[in-house]
Design goal:
Layout (H helix, E strand, L loop, with lengths): L6 E6 L6 H14 L4 E5 L5 H15 L9 H25 L3 E5 L2 H12 L3 H12 L6 E6 L2 H10 L11 H17 L4 E5 L6 H15 L1
Parallel strand pairs: 1-3, 1-4, 2-3, 4-5
Bound molecules: thymidine-5'-phosphate (TMP).
Thymidine-5'-phosphate (TMP) binds next to helix 4.
């Protein structure tokens, strides 16, 4: 038997790392074991947060626009969307002892905005303090990938990809940032190499979570 307890699980990694795929797999694998969970994502996750996501993505989709968002505007939009998501979905679910699986969370902001775009870390920490009020993931899976392989996966996607504007070196920088963050948070991080599309990854992830639920 598994204990009914809240667990806040996040998936992190660069685009093409397979994190969205693996978070869905975990959701479905838990369902097969009659363990209900909630699958969500950032930016987005609630009606209003998804509206903010669309504003962010609309800016991505038009990389040649003269009037692009300043990096602080961009950051504030991610944080605004997080605030809506945390208040209206994540915290209520945790209070109801639910398992929350979130595709991206705070470490994406560290990796993309702070390390990737040089946004001031204190600026983000300060806002996080107010909107998270101590909320932290219990466990984070970082999916590492060979960056060329990730770019190959992105190119294969049918939907025109909005991230083509990011260079290989940007993705390398962001992935290195994720690795650095994982080393600073060893207790909550599980780093898995997902370069080879191995079926083992979903099994390892499920096993780790089931173990947590038994404790
Ligand atoms: P996704 O569809 O892979 O989740 O993409 C969302 C994009 O938003 C991706 O480029 C990463 C980026 N992002 C940030 O830059 N900062 C953040 O805090 C979050 C949550 C996402």
């Amino acid at each position: 038997m598994y204990k009914k307890k809240s667990l806040f699980i996040t998936f992190e990694g660069i685009e093409g790392s397979g994190k969205s795929f693996q978070s869905k797999k975990l959701y479905n694998n838990l369902k097969l074991k009659n363990i209900s969970s909630l699958l969500t994502r950032e930016p987005g996750g609630t009606g209003s947060a998804e509206k903010i996501r669309n504003v962010i993505l609309d800016d991505y989709f038009h990389p040649k626009l003269k009037e692009k968002f300043n990096k602080y505007t961009d950051t504030l939009l991610y944080l605004a969307s997080r605030n809506e998501h945390v208040i209206n979905k994540i915290k209520p679910a945790i209070l109801m002892k639910k398992i929350v699986i979130c595709d991206r969370f705070i470490d994406s902001t560290m990796a993309y905005q702070v390390y990737g775009k040089n946004v001031n870390k204190n600026f983000i920490d300060h806002i996080h303090k107010h909107i998270l009020k101590g909320l932290k993931p219990d466990i984070t899976f970082l999916l590492r990938v060979n960056v060329s392989k990730a770019l190959f996966r992105l190119k294969k996607r049918k939907k025109k990809n909005r991230y083509d504007k990011f260079s290989k070196s940007f993705y390398t920088k962001v992935q290195n940032a994720f690795i650095k963050i994982s080393r600073k948070n060893k207790r909550r991080y599980i780093v898995l190499d997902n370069t080879n599309d191995s079926n083992d990854i979903e099994k390892i992830i499920l096993k780790k979570i089931l173990l947590k639920l038994k404790k």
